[in-house]
Amino acid sequence: MFEANRWLLNGLFALAADNLLYAAEQRGLTTGIFGALHTYGRQLNWNCHIHLSWTSGGINEHGAWKKLSFALPKVRARWVWNVRQSSAVCMGVSCSAAAAGSHPGL
Predict the structure, then answer these.
(1) 8-52 per-position pLDDT tens digit
(2) What is the dihedral of CA 97, 37, 30, 69, to 10 degrees?
């Protein structure tokens, strides 16, 4: 889907960052994130993926630094849900039809 519709790639950053920002916000923290989009693998084959780096913590409402870690299974579940929702919208399927369940939290 992304190879044929490369304009969709920009949205992957928002989906990926949403995972980490959501987890930080749930803990009342503001964190830093940067990412890189790779569209090809080592052998120059199509292999679209994102690398994200983030700070090891965040700043709370009082300006204090707090450590932050992520539970990989929860992050992965939210990522898959976000991508499926986004794909459904891009393919013209209603979000309610695409997601019978609720949005997984972190």
Answers:
(1) 777 777 888 888 888 899 999 999 988 888 877 778 887 778 888
(2) 90
Q: Provide the whole-model pTM.
A: 0.62
Q: For residues 37-75, b (16+ Cβ closer than 10 Å) or e, as one string?
A: eeeeeeeeeeebeeeeebbebbbeeeeeeeebeeeeeeb
Which pair of structure tokens corresponds to residue 41?
Answer: 């693998």
DSSP per-residue string spanning 23-82 = HHHHTT-B--EEEEEEEE-TTS-EEEEEEEEE-SEEE-TTS-EEE----HHHHHHHHHHH
Token code pair at residue 8: 């969709």
